[in-house]
Amino acid sequence: VSAPVLILTNERDFAADGVISRLHNRGVPTVRWNAETLPISSVFWSPVDPPQFRSVWLRDYLPGASAGLTVAELDEYLVVRAQWRDWLATLDSVSTRWVNPIWSSRRAENKAVQLTTAARIGLRVPATTITNDPDVARSFAAVHLHGAVVKTLAPGYFAYSDQAFMFTTELTDEVLSAKGAWLQQPLIVQRRIPRARDVRVIITGDHVAAAAVTTGGQDWRLSEHTLWTAITVSDVIADLCRELVRELGLVYAAIDLIDDGHDWWFLEANQAGEFQFLDRPLDLGVADAIATLLQ
Amino acid sequence: MTMSWFDGMLARRYIGEIMSESLVRRLALVRRTASTHPVTRYDAVTGMSMVLEEGRWIPSHESQVLAETKKADIEKGEDQKGS
Q1: What residues pair up with B43 in beta bridges, in sequence order?
Q2: Interface predicted TM-score of the whole assembly (ipTM), two decimals
Q3: How far apart are CA A291 and CA A39, in angstroms?
Q4: Strand stretches in chain A, DSSP E
Q5: Measured distance CA(B43)–CA(A74) in Å, rounded
Q6: Which residues in chain A are closer than 8 Å to B66, comparing Cβ atoms?
Q7: Do residues A144 and A274 lie in contact, with contact meaning Cβ atoms separated by under 8 Å?
């Protein structure tokens, strides 16, 4: 019996459904573990008898805590969660292909690593600083014609209270005035790039897909009307994006860029970035490419 | 500014002390969906999600309703994170 593909995700991952259906159509067995129901079965590992999977697609893995836990319950949750986090690495055998490789994916989540790597290979990267000091941020913004934006260094999603999210925000005097709030955490402060359009380039192995959208705001996710269109990027941009993915040790990434009308600017590379919202309506071939990587 | 206590101790640097509200918290927005979210359920047998369309459950990858749903409506505000 051939080893199955293991898909680590959650029950609401509709993008995974599309890839799983393709794998089934190709006769490839799959096993899906959802974070909501982890642990779903008994697990085992030994140095001489590791679990066998043809490949692992790492989309989402660890369950979230429930709201309203007591301190003792939260303590237990965190300890148990840490065991499952390290258990995942037991699947990292040489015969298993990962999308994306586990250690590289963890490293690639760091935006400072992304920006440094992108700049090193030749992508145009906006001037950036990471700080918790509003005076540093103010001085940084003052030397840039179009000011600056502020964004989180790690995901700013409040999962256990009101599901609020910090999007990319313009660095205004009002934002800068909250000195005490600034000191609580380091944030990314970046030169604001006037955008003609936002671009997402999706790299899957050697497969390149891209789409663009024009919105008026700093973060297209907040726009009421987003009409994405498929585009073909230049060979230069395609090669740079492929190289970035390779340099980060990945095989898949959704790379966000800004086209200012003259130049293309790198913003970030999402190692587990969403693709279905573009792939289905625009028929970009991403789900097929992912299935091919996994099979 | 004094902070408000909210669920979970993860957000606290010092248990029992009052700290300022973080800038992340202050700038975070509760996003409203731009389109009606489809009714879905997870089918453990097939290992895929189903979408309710015109009274019938359709596999999500065949759903037209889901295909028309904005990205912002079907995820938590950020791309998947792996672990």
Answers
A1: B48
A2: 0.84
A3: 25
A4: 5-9, 30-34, 55-58, 97-99, 128-131, 148-152, 169-170, 187-191, 197-204, 207-213, 229-230, 252-259, 264-270
A5: 29
A6: 14
A7: no
User: Above 90 in pLDDT, residue A251?
Assistant: yes
What distance in Å separates the CA atoms of residue A114 and residue A132, rounded to the nearest whole number?
Answer: 20
Interface contact A166-B27, CB threshold 8 A? yes
Q: Which two tokens stand for residue B64?
A: 């037209």
Tell which A residues from 79 to 108 touch B, by Cβ distance under 8 Å.
Answer: 85, 88, 100, 102, 105-106
CB nearest B82 (choices: A58, A163, A185): A58
Beta carbon pairs, A and B, within 8 Å: 170
pLDDT in tens, A120-156: 999 999 999 999 999 999 999 999 999 999 999 988 8
> Distance from first CA to last CA of chain B, Å, rounded?
34
Residue A258 corresponds to which tokens in the numbers above?
């800004």
Letter string b/e over residues B23-35, b meaning 16 or more CB atoms within 10 A of that residue's CB = bbbbbbeebeeee
Pick B22's closest partner by Cβ from A11, A65, A184.
A184
pLDDT in tens, A156-170: 888 778 878 898 999
Summarize pLDDT for A205-236 with one digit per residue, the tens: 999 999 999 887 777 777 767 789 999 999 99
CB contact under 8 A, B49 and A11: yes
Please name the member of B27, B47, B80 whose beta carbon is closest to the beta carbon of A32: B47
The closest of A272, A197, A201, A240 to A10, measured between CA atoms, is A272
Chain A nearest C-alpha distance from B74 (Å): 8
Residue A127 corresponds to which tokens in the numbers above? 């001037």
Q: What is the model's pTM?
A: 0.88
Distance from the B38 Cα atom to the nearest Cα atom in chain A, whole angstroms: 12
Q: Which two tokens stand for residue A225?
A: 């009307």
Residues 6+ apart with CB under 8 A from A224: B34
pLDDT at A179: 92
The more confidently predicted of residues A119 and B38 is A119
The pLDDT value given to residue A117: 98
Contact between A291 and A16 (Cβ < 8 Å): no
Unique residue bearing structure tokens 């008898």: A49
Cβ within 8 Å, pair A109-B81: yes
